[in-house]
């Protein structure tokens, strides 16, 4: 039904489930279990679920299913499974596919918790991991082997916004029979269609742009029907990573404005990146929409805009702290993709557990600031940043 709809229509209407009362807004089915009319019906449901039938909230729920259906329709995915957080989605996507003795190739530039799963947890369970510079196609080509099970990367890395050539990496992986698993949080489903570029499994932290207002945790994994139902769902059902119905309702409503919010935030981000580049206190601006970004050509080819995130370099930690502490509009936090603009100092927060050498390898310095652009007026944000920089 939704195949001919444009994104904004899909985000408002896809996956809607209405009760006998015909409510306009989606209902919250805040229940952990479901009632069967007879023992025979219960037995049959445990053998095979019919359409829109449920057993237990850890396995599925009408509100959660509506969210899953809507984002799957947006992405063009066959199926989706929603999770309690973005990291539950990453954990589920990887651990459900891997076993001791498997080999994976991963980009080195990852969010701190993603890096912990790939660098610490997977090897602990006998999975061999090879790290590469995600922007170097030759390294991917050399690292992917005939026995590689999957490759994993963030389409745009956190926090220094390296952009992966998704189509090229997917081609290399598929030539060896490996699955392609991508975290597409920074690019968002609005600005990049990862499946169209060859990705097999797409992961989102719904906590970010999908909620977009700092309210709830959530995540989602999207892929083929066989993978979601046959591989991922059994793992998540039995390990308990399900999304709560209330959070699903928040995410479902967040989707209705996702396209409008992301495009507005990206337009402001492009303006702020150019403004920051002209300030003498800023030694470097990192924004994929600017021609001076190392992967600008790749970003232009696979994304509609440069995105909602930018990063910039200041002289040192003390300067970065003075700038962030002087902000009046943007807030200091470690979230992103919010209606509020958020400034983060990665070296002391999201990536603080990494040693100095590793942070340097990832391009994170003591002067690096990650900036998530919100929905405030662009002129107000510009004035706020300039005043803070002048103060420093």
Average pLDDT, to the nearest integer? 96
Please mark out the parts with pLDDT under 50 across 5 or more consecutive residues, or reply none.
Answer: none
Largest sheet: 7 strands, mixed
Relevant CATH superfamily of the largest domain:
Type I PLP-dependent aspartate aminotransferase-like (Major domain)
Instruction: Count helical runs.
Output: 15
Short description:
The protein is an alpha/beta fold. The chain has 15 helices and 12 strands.
Describe the structure.
With 392 residues, this protein is of the alpha/beta class. Helices cover 40% and strands 14% of the residues. It is built from 15 helices and 12 strands. It has helices at residues 7-13, 39-47, 62-75, 86-95, 112-124, 137-143, 166-175, 188-191, 225-239, 245-255, 258-277, 296-302, 317-326, 356-361, 378-391, and strands spanning 79-83, 103-107, 128-132, 148-154, 179-183, 201-205, 219-223, 284-286, 309-313, 331-332, 342-344, 368-372. The longest helix is centred in the C-terminal third of the chain and has 20 residues, at 258-277. The termini are far apart. The mean pLDDT is 96.
């Amino acid at each position: 039904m939704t195949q001919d709809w444009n994104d904004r229509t899909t985000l408002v209407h896809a996956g809607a489930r209405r009760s006998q009362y015909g409510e306009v807004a989606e209902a919250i089915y805040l229940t952990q279990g479901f009632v069967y009319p007879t023992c025979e019906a219960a037995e049959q449901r445990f053998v095979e679920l019919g359409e829109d039938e449920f057993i237990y909230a850890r396995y599925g729920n009408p509100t959660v299913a509506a969210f899953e259906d809507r984002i799957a329709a947006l992405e063009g995915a066959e199926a989706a499974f929603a999770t309690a957080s973005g990291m539950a989605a990453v954990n589920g996507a990887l651990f459900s596919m891997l076993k001791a003795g498997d080999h994976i190739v991963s980009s080195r530039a990852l969010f701190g918790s993603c890096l912990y799963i790939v660098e610490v947890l997977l090897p602990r369970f006998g999975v061999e991991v090879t790290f590469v510079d995600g922007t170097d196609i030759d390294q991917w080509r050399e690292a992917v082997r005939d026995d590689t099970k999957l490759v994993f990367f963030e389409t745009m890395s956190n926090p220094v916004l390296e952009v992966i050539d998704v189509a090229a990496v997917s081609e290399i992986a598929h030539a060896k029979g490996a699955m392609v698993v991508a975290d597409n949080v920074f690019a968002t489903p609005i600005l990049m269609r990862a499946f169209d570029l060859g990705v097999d499994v797409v992961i989102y932290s719904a906590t970010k742009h999908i909620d977009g207002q700092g309210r709830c945790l959530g995540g989602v994994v999207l892929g083929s029907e066989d993978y979601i139902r046959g591989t991922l769902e059994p793992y998540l059902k039995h390990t308990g990573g399900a999304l709560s119905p209330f959070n699903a309702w928040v995410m479902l409503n967040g989707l209705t404005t996702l396209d409008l919010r992301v495009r507005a935030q990206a337009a402001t981000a492009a303006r702020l990146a150019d403004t920051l580049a002209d300030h003498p206190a800023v030694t470097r601006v990192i924004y994929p929409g600017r021609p001076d970004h190392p992967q600008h050509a790749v970003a232009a080819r696979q994304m509609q805009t440069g995105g909602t995130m930018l990063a910039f370099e200041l002289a040192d930690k003390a300067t970065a702290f003075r700038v962030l502490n002087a902000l009046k509009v943007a807030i200091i936090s470690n979230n992103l993709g919010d209606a509020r603009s958020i400034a983060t100092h990665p070296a002391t927060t999201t990536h603080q557990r990494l040693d100095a050498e590793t942070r340097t390898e990832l391009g994170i310095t003591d002067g690096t600031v990650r900036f998530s652009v919100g929905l405030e007026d662009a002129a107000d944000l510009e004035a706020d940043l300039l005043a803070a920089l002048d103060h420093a």
